[in-house]
Amino acid sequence: MEIRPINLTISPEREKIKASSSSFLDELSKFIHWVNQEQQKAEAIKDAVLKGADIPLHQMVVEFEKASIALNLLIQVRNKLVEAFQELNRMQV
Predict the structure, then answer these.
(1) What is the pLDDT of residues 44-60, one digit of tens each?
(2) How far, in Å, are 28, 75, 80, 82 from residue 89 at the CA level?
(3) Which coarse location class describes where this protein primarily resides (predicted)?
């Protein structure tokens, strides 16, 4: 059985992540855009079903749930941001 030492070098994937890191505001903006897209997809499926398109019921329900979960996650992120801002305002200098 061959015993190999632990590799302590940083993998190229990690270096790539560090090089392409973006700000929190950029990530938040991407997340909000993604949530909006999920909401629009659910709305488009609803409109298609109302117009008589042959879309399976389970697909419609899955899209609605994805949109709902995404929106609930966005609300929780917003709540945490507001809570953090309020905590910072309460800090004494």
Answers:
(1) 999 999 999 999 999 99
(2) 22, 21, 14, 11
(3) other
